[in-house]
Known about the structure:
The protein is α+β, with helices and mostly antiparallel strands. The chain has helices at about 20-30, 65; strands spanning about 10-15, 35-45, 50-55, 60, 70-75. The mean pLDDT is about 95.
Amino acid sequence: MGIVELAEDERARIIAIAASPELEAKLREIGFCEGDEVELLARGPFGGQPLALRLNRRTIAIRGDEASAISVERVR
């Protein structure tokens, strides 16, 4: 499943990043890495974008197409 499928305030663990080499490099520079936990904090007012995420104690906003490249599993 992708980050875009999470409900607000739901946490998940990153299991894969499947994107073009350029986008994958950008996401990794931001701090996305397999095994890290993310939390969907909020969705933007325009079509639910951007997505506000908590990643490694930071708040990050990314677009839906970027978020769809990140596969996650829910944390229970």
